[in-house]
Design a protein that fits this description.
The complex is a heterodimer of chains A (about 120) and B (about 110). By secondary structure, chain A is mainly beta. Chain A has no helices and eleven strands. In chain A, strands 2, 4, 5, 6, 9, 10 and 11 form a seven-stranded mixed beta sheet that branches. In chain A, strands 1-3-8-7 form a four-stranded antiparallel beta sheet, with no helix packed on it. Chain A is globular, with a radius of gyration of 14 Å. The mean pLDDT of chain B is about 95. Classes of the chains: A mainly beta (about 120), B mainly beta (about 110).
Chain lengths: ~120, ~110
């Protein structure tokens, strides 16, 4: 079974530039998450989708971050314009629909963003 | 608001030792709890998932326990090996929400 795919693996940009990350979840997983992990901390949820609908985006800095999952499968996360404090690893995860018996979450390898 | 803490923040042990990692959460109304491993520069690998109705789960040398009423989970690693060196994260999913709240992790070093 293929895992969660993310690209790119690494990205270096200058502040005020824009950047986009892509995620393809495990086939059949309706729930998709984007997390931000700053060095030395645990991941923090940015946004959660169920199919193509947003379940929780309360911690997403909406003035600069946006995310979409148009067809309910893969997803993109965009930052525009980037700030120095956005330097982090961006993790995508997927799971079966909440409420089903096994809602184990599976994570991709992450995208390491460095803003200079 | 759910908060998750992990103790210790870092741990260094000689190879072969049995060890325990601790995870505490403030809201006992959880749906499940999941332990992850993270190697430097990598994503998260799922180790064990414990549903709220379960007391423990085992996989190989790993055993995770859950005490919902006291807001605690422990991850027991038997006969530690250098390859176990990584950061271990616990994450809880609440009954009323669907996303995971993570602890800060425990950084484990197993010395040969």
């Amino acid at each position: 079974e293929a895992g969660v795919a993310q690209s790119p693996r690494y990205k270096i940009i200058e502040k005020r530039q824009s950047v986009a990350f892509w995620c393809n979840p495990i086939s059949g997983h309706a729930t998709l998450y984007w997390y931000q992990q700053i060095l030395g901390q645990g991941p923090k949820l940015l946004i959660q989708f169920q199919n193509n609908g947003v379940v929780d985006d309360s911690q997403l800095p909406k003035d600069r971050f946006s995310a979409e999952r148009l067809k309910g499968v893969d997803s993109t996360l965009k930052i525009q314009p980037a700030k120095l404090e956005d330097s982090a690893v961006y993790l995508c995860a997927s799971s079966l629909v909440w409420g089903q018996l096994n809602t184990e979450a599976f994570f991709g390898q992450g995208t390491r963003l460095t803003v200079v | 608001k759910q908060e998750v803490t992990q103790i210790p923040a870092a741990l260094s042990v000689p190879e072969g030792e049995n060890l325990v990692l601790n995870c505490s959460f403030t809201d006992s109304a959880i749906y499940n709890l999941q332990w992850f491993r993270q190697d430097p520069g990598k994503g998260l690998t799922s180790l064990l998932l414990i549903q709220s109705s379960q007391r423990e789960q085992t996989s190989g040398r790993l055993n995770a326990s859950l005490d919902k009423s006291s807001g605690r989970s422990t991850l027991y690693i038997a006969a530690s090996q250098p390859g176990d060196s990584a950061t271990y994260l616990c994450a809880v999913r609440n009954n009323y929400g669907q996303n995971f709240v993570f602890g800060p992790g425990t950084r484990l070093s197993v010395l040969p």
